[in-house]
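User: Fold this; tokens only.

Assistant: Input:
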Amino acid sequence: MTAPEPAATFRTVPSASRDFLSALFRAALGAVTPESRVAAHLPAPPRGRTVVVGAGKAAAAMARIVEDHWSGPLSGLVVTRYGHGVPTSRIEVVEAAHPVPDEAGQDAARRILELAGGLGEDDLLLCLISGGGSALLALPAPGLTLEDKRQVSRALLRSGADIHEFNCVRKHLSAIKGGRLALAAHPARVVTLAISDVTGDRPSAIASGPTVADPTSFADARAVLGKYGIEAPPSVRAHLEAAADETPKLGDPRLARTEIRIIARPQDALEAAAAAATAQGYTPMILGDAIEGESREVAKVLGAIAAQAADRGQPASPPLVLLSGGETTVTVRGKGQGGRNAEFLLALGLALDGRPGISAVACDTDGIDGTTDAAGALLLPDTLERARTLGLDPRAALADNDAYSVFERLGDLVVTGPTRTNVNDFRAIVIDTLDRGTP
């Protein structure tokens, strides 16, 4: 019988600095801004008119880049979230509410549909779409009211439904989403430039796919409400049961002159952060750009992977950066300020329990974590210790969906303001150098 190998001992070096964690996030953002992506994907001007429409948190910034690089006549309207507008000269910018729609979004969506409906065969509808567009293009289907949509949106936001389920319902309560904007523009050519914030980069899911075929149905929308036990208003239930005006499907001839170009994706942000990590001597590992699930459960899984790397050098040896994107969800049970990225980080901190040498950043690339004023936060090895020194109870805060308050008291929130882009969540877990040796 061979003697057992001696136990490994470790010498840690200081954990990743706040500057390094922040630099990874900045690198990710820089790769997916409208300024870096729009101009190269613009189509050639048509023989007729060019009308620009759009919706999303990046829509105004995208519109300004179009104006800066377009050689011919131009007009149009885009709608973006309050605080996300930028100055433009030829394309009107309207600001509206997100994630629960308001009258400003409803009016903008109605005007966008009218602009599309006035085009002919020689004209071009250039559609600028990004995350947030679903709530901002708030035009209820006939027989429904904006308040109907608000009630359903609020219920879905609290239910834990993922973005694909959410958008399935929204498309079937809308007069403009789910390909209906493209139908209005027929027979004009329609080119959509999209910044993807959805897992899998599915065109039909980005801003609920206003210019592309919709693979979902009224039956799917009814199933989502049933799955989460959502009591919709009677008018909504009647509309979904009637299923009188299904969204256009793949192969619909009215969509023959439509094209979508996805100009920025979550993977682009992760690859940029990977390059920044490599430049600082770290090995980057991209775990995936489409990770979904409850924030606190995802944190447990990624925390276990980080611990395995620190202890055993698997799946790779430190110094290592684990990168991931996607959109986690939070089933709201408490009364805290929330934020899915802050919740992820607090759950990760509890899973790691002050383990030395592991730090993390998690932020929403639009600069808004949930409904808070922060993009996300930073987690350091001493986060829990500092929190408890201040009299905070991290576990109780997590149970109350109040991770935001913990990181606010610690001064570890990441506050960017509106970034005017959106490729969903960005997470980086940094495992610093650990040297193995024998006693």
